[in-house]
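Progress narrative, Year 2. Work on Allergen V5/Tpx-1-related from Macleaya cordata advanced from sequence curation to structure prediction during this period.
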Amino acid sequence: MASNKQLELGSVMISIVVASLTLALLMNVSRAQNAPQDFLVPHNAARANVSVGPMTWDTTLAAYALNYANQRAKDCKLIHSDGPYGENIAWGSSATFSAGQAVNLWVAEKHCYNYATNLCQGGECLHYTQVVWRDSVRLGCARVTCSGAGGTFVICSYDYPGNWEGERPY
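Result:
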């Protein structure tokens, strides 16, 4: 039969294992803020809301986005890449600014988009219209922590690009 000291030691060991597993799970949650689904799910929810089909993840676009995000990681300035793709960028003041938070900022511009006139009214809406642009069917995004300015820089690249003058997004 086990002594009280052996039972105590076993209980302590179990507590350490449980604490270690909990910490490991929490660390994976924070890393998951860069997963393709963390970008795709809010994009596709906004698109479904206006009856536009879902996007798929594109590794070429994701590599392009990551390359540009790494260039911006030093200063975190909201400067567009002027590349061949449609693009949304965002900056969050904390290192925990997530993919979903960035996409939600863009989608929150929906109230400024007037479908009847196809114009932004009362504020910016072009980030939103890029998210729901019907011809944008491939998505690649990246999220980096800014070394100099602090915070987090997020970029999403879209193929085909949206926001063509005179055309409606959906």
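Residues 1-32 form one domain. The radius of gyration is 21 Å.
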